[in-house]
């Protein structure tokens, strides 16, 4: 890859890392506190920036961006000392006398590339893990949330150590130019299509990486659940952020006996949350740009709308929409929807629902509403996904103790809490041997007798 762009800030960051500044526990703690201060002091500006980008409400921004990040920082501050501790290991008799341990070491200067849909969360949650692990970092926010990107660049420069953490703004071109550089680790959140390109660029320098991608997250509504609660929760999770959430339920598979009820409750929930005309609701966001709006309009035009369906290109508004008459072969089922359209498909036997799920690439999350523990076990055992949430949605990503990440086509690697610290660290093993005794047994020449003795020692004492 040809790189015409020069990033002088990278030299500064490399130098800081080489001087060992970011390995110090005190530095890590001070930067986590500084990030916390940014989130608290600039909370209002953050909410305004996200609102400018896609008209998201301040309450939603707090819930899904700043509130989450603040709890993730508190969690890291509480546990960082134990995460950093070396682990001593016992040594087989044959290698005595020795001491052995391994400990987490930072990778160096890492690159974090964010998606636009949770602009602060997707850049700063990996940054928290990266700081905790003692790395320097370059953050490249998405150009599709320009107000958030600008605030991150300006704001963080006043709070964080500029010799170790930098925000570099830009789009595809800048991102590609950054990827041509050598980093210690790459953490990418975005689409599958770009993820492939990122992996290709990482291969050039053999850089380890995490890919946090999207996919079609299924939601099963079994016969045995409280359909009213399921409907409210599904509607909330689907239309949060205008449906532009990697973890949103992409489609619903409902038992045929509960389909009519679920649809009625979902319609009730949409009206309850956003009123008769969701366009007027201050809590209902817009589609981020015209390209995405047109893509969703095409999906809408080819589908059978059961509820909603209105749109307005001037505002890039698409109403919360429920689709029926969808089959696994429908266009809307061929790729991640990533917008406020929700297909509902009825099934008779659970095995049919599981077959549909298995017919689609591995999703980031799988959701199930069921009060029957046998059904819960069966669904978990007979499906694959990055994570699972039973009787609710999205919250598996809000718990710092749970690793968050995808599987195969929805990505690989994980973060949040300790998993994030581990992602941004590698385990360095140190063995310290005693110089004495120094028997000649391991050294050539290997006589037959020596070989037999070695064989015995390795077999019985290792
Ligand atoms: P995207 O892949 O278009 O862009 C992501 C980032 O990559 C941006 O910063 C962009 O500037 C950069 N980029 C764009 N083209 C590039 C190229 N050719 N080379 C290098 N970098 C490039 O994704 P998006 O539209 O911002 O986000 C939507 C996608 O992200 C959806 O598929 C969604 O499911 C996924 N997503 C996943 C998660 C997760 O946690 N797994 C979270 C949010 C979004």
Describe the structure.
The chain has 462 residues and is α/β, with parallel strands linked by helices. The chain has 2 domains: 9-213 and 413-426, Aldehyde Dehydrogenase, Chain A, domain 1 (3-Layer(aba) Sandwich); 217-405, Aldehyde Dehydrogenase, Chain A, domain 2. 43% of the residues lie in helices and 18% in strands. The protein has 15 helices and 18 strands. The protein has helices at 8-18, 25-41, 43-54, 58-84, 119-132, 146-159, 172-179, 192-205, 227-239, 259-274, 290-301, 350-358, 373-381, 417-423, 448-461, and strands spanning 87-89, 98-106, 109-113, 136-140, 165-167, 185-189, 209-212, 217-221, 249-255, 304-307, 311-312, 317-318, 321-324, 341-347, 365-369, 387-390, 411-412, 425-433. It has a 7-stranded mixed β-sheet with strand order 10-13-14-9-8-15-16, sandwiched between helices. The protein binds nicotinamide-adenine-dinucleotide.
């Amino acid at each position: 890859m040809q790189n015409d762009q020069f990033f002088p800030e990278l030299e500064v960051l490399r130098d800081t890392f080489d001087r060992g500044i970011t390995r110090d526990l005190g530095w890590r703690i001070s930067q986590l506190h500084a990030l916390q201060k940014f989130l608290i002091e600039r909370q209002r500006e953050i909410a305004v920036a996200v609102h400018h980008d896609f008209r998201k409400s301040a309450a939603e921004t707090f819930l899904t961006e700043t509130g989450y990040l603040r709890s993730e920082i508190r969690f890291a501050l509480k546990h960082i000392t134990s995460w950093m501790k070396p682990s001593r290991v016992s040594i087989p008799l044959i290698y005595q006398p020795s001491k052995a341990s391994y400990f987490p070491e930072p990778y160096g200067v890492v690159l974090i590339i964010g998606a636009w849909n949770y602009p602060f969360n997707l850049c700063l949650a990996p940054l928290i893990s990266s700081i905790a692990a003692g790395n320097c970092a370059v953050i490249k926010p998405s150009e599709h949330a320009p107000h958030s990107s600008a605030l991150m660049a300006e704001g963080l420069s006043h709070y964080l150590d500029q010799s170790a953490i930098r925000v570099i703004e830009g789009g595809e071109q800048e991102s590609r130019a950054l990827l041509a550089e050598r980093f210690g680790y790459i953490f990418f959140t975005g689409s599958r299509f770009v993820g492939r390109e990122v992996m290709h660029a990482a291969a050039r320098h053999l850089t380890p990486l995490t890919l946090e991608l999207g996919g079609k997250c299924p939601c099963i509504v079994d016969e045995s659940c409280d359909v009213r609660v399921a409907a409210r929760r599904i509607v909330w999770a689907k239309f949060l952020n205008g449906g532009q959430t990697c973890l949103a339920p992409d489609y619903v598979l409902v038992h045929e006996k509960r389909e009519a009820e679920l649809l009625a409750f979902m319609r009730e929930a949409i009206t309850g949350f956003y009123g008769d005309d969701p366009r007027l609701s201050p809590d209902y966001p817009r589609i981020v740009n015209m390209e995405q709006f047109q893509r969703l309009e095409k999906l809408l035009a080819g589908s059978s709308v059961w509820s909603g369906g209105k749109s307005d290109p001037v505002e890039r508004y698409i109403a919360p929409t429920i689709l029926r008459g969808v089959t696994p072969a429908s266009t809307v089922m061929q790729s991640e929807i990533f917008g406020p359209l929700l297909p509902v498909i009825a099934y008779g036997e659970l095995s049919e629902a599981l077959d549909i799920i298995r017919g689609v690439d591995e999703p980031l999350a799988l959701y199930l509403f069921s009060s029957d523990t046998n059904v819960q076990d069966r669904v978990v055992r007979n499906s694959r996904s990055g994570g699972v949430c039973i009787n609710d949605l999205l919250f598996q990503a809000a718990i710092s103790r749970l690793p968050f990440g995808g599987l195969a086509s929805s990505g690989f690697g994980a973060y949040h809490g300790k998993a994030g610290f581990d992602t941004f660290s590698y385990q360095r093993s140190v063995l310290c041997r005693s110089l004495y005794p120094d028997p000649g047994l391991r050294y050539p020449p290997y006589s037959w007798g020596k070989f037999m003795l070695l064989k015995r020692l390795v077999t019985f004492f290792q």
